[in-house]
Amino acid sequence: MISSEYRQKLLDECQKLDLQLQKDKAFEKIALDIVDNKNDAAVLALINQLGHLKHHQETFAKNQAIILQLLYLYLGSKQIDESYQRLKTSSNKSLDDLQEDLNKLVGLTAVKEQVNDLITFNKIQQARVKAGLKKSNKTLHMAFLGNPGTAKTTVARIVGKMYKSLGLLSKGHFIEASRTDLIAEYQGQTAIKVKKLVNRAKGGVLFIDEAYSITENEKSDSYGRECLTELTKALEDYRDDLVVIVAGYSDLMDKFFQSNPGLKSRFNTFIDFPDYTLDELVDIFTFDCNSYEYRPTETALLKVREWFDCKLKEQDENFSNGRLVRNFFDDVVLAQSKRLSKETATPSRNQLMQIIESDIPTYTLKTEDVNK
């Protein structure tokens, strides 16, 4: 059962372990991938790394036990088993299956069209090569532009699997990175760090989220410049078996591309990810309900719609789209759990599935909105 309480405890324990190990958010990043993106591979990666840690360092056995317990409390053993089965299935998916996964995503009509066009283009290029003709010199690297929570990471994972299915990538694995994974603490070490990360990503997708943060200090940031010099070189050197996808806010990404003369030319595909509409936010909530076998009543859904409508009208600059919906869903499920625990000691299957109007929070306007 998803719970906001267990979610936070899981993140807190992973942060503690990172501090003890002096690792820069290594375990916390995996945990965030689990709670924010519901990533099956991240669930198994966390279990695997905890097992590896216990084997080599017995002193951390207590931390391992606590995190594993919280993971099972947060997800439930059934979901972890299902994650494993889904991961096994996804590795064997055909291109048609992957295109169906893409098309099932809520909204993103233009994004889906652009990705499907890329697949069509690359199929034809492969046919040209087989016919003894020259292929296009376009790189596979991409830039995903848009606000947080607009499914950029999800689409990037699907694209990687599609390219693997087409034979454009030898492995199709997915590595997510941020500034801390690329920038070293000391002068001259950043290039080495970037090389190591690129070597890990070869044959798959290197997804750099908030890529603009690499150059956040503009010209004074010699570390950022060192990183971009090495990254720009890698974009060209390994273009035949590596896809680098950079992502972030549209305006900040414009500055990112201006920071290095040869950088933008290495990217041939730019995809804009729009914010979700009211209908799409409600659809994402309904999708989450169906995924976890919850059934909201009509009056509950009306209140959900009202809540998201108020949130959109608030025009909060920190609006997080799909991430907001998933946090909201966690709050609703927790409210349902509290209600049921007060109502009955042995809830029926129908009661366990049903979400009613009182489980949905009432939207509270910010103080500045009330005073307008």
Labels describing this entry:
two-stranded parallel sheet, ATPase_AAA_core, ATP-binding, 3 domains, Helicase, Ruva Protein, domain 3, five-stranded parallel beta sheet, 61% helix, 372 residues, Rossmann fold, P-loop_NTPase, 17 helices, alpha/beta, 7 strands
Question: Mind explaining what this structure looks like?
Answer:
This protein is an alpha/beta fold. The protein has three domains: 86 residues, no CATH class; 181 residues, P-loop containing nucleotide triphosphate hydrolases (Rossmann fold), CATH 3.40.50.300; 93 residues, Helicase, Ruva Protein, domain 3 (Orthogonal Bundle). 61% of the residues lie in helices and 8% in strands. It contains 17 helices and seven strands. Strands 2-3-4-1-5 form a five-stranded parallel beta sheet, sandwiched between helices. Helix 11 links the parallel strand 3 and strand 4. Helix 1 runs antiparallel to helix 2, helix 1 runs antiparallel to helix 4 and helix 13 packs across helix 14. The longest helix has 22 residues. The chain is globular. It starts with a helix and ends with a helix. The model has no long low-confidence stretch (mean pLDDT 84).
